[in-house]
Predict the structure.
Amino acid sequence: MTAETSAPVAKNEDSARGFAFAMTAYTLWGFLPFYMKAVAHISPMEVIAHRVLWSLPVAGIVLLLLGRTDQLKAALRSPRTIVMAALTATLITLNWGIYIWAIAVGRTLDAALGYFINPLFSIFLGAVLLKEKLKPAQIAAIGLASIAVAILTYDAGTLPWVSLGLMLTWAFYAFFRKTLPVGPNQGFFLEVLMLSIPCLIYVVYIEAAGTGHLLNSDWSDTALLVGCGIVTAAPLMIYGNGAKLLKLSTIGIMQYIAPTIIFLIAVFVFGEPFGTTKLIAFLFIWSALIVYSWSMLRQSQGH
């Protein structure tokens, strides 16, 4: 997933085409754990490197086909834009790393939790950093989510750092991503372009050392690593088209599709333990999201 899920362009009305685009993107993000589980035997760092390298040509081709390279050229001439892109690129790399590792070690439920609570933390972040006024329903939702985190912390004896790590890196990525004066597709290309040099050096090094998986005898590893570009870039490009054709409130509700699918996969396919304590915590989370969504819908309807 990308920051554009947190900051889409609001529209006055929805369109069936926009809904189809957004539904496709969120569904692809929701089923991404299957792909990450298939590469679980490969180190997260190597998977990240290939996500970057193979996303670059995909994103580049899309920009060329759409004829949207002017903004990119201007961004490359702006030192401030380069610095901000370096920051967002670092944050999304950390987010990917935590997510890939979580799926590999059987912590998919923690990943789902992180993306469930992210919208609520983004609201809190806006209040703290941008001095945005919180509505009573938003305060209530944040309170319910905080109770859920407290329950999980008490039960485990430690903070749910996977969930919090995903939440923090994603929310700050979204926050700083808004400062880039480029469109979502151009911004994504700029980020992977900046990451591509260290990633290429790393891939060349591990392949030369014989520890990489791109050129080993198992062709399936090669296909999976190359395919990382498609599974990373395609949902972003599809979403970028859909968000422009939907209301902000519609996107706000639809963003729960991906973590819901991830949650169902974790429990019913991967068979991760889901005891009473986690059930109670998730009930608090879901209650928070209902309160938040209800408030958003009422606001969009002018109440």
User: Anything to note?
Assistant: Residues 79-104 form the longest helix (26 residues). Residues 3-300 form one domain. DSSP finds 13 helices and no strands in the chain.
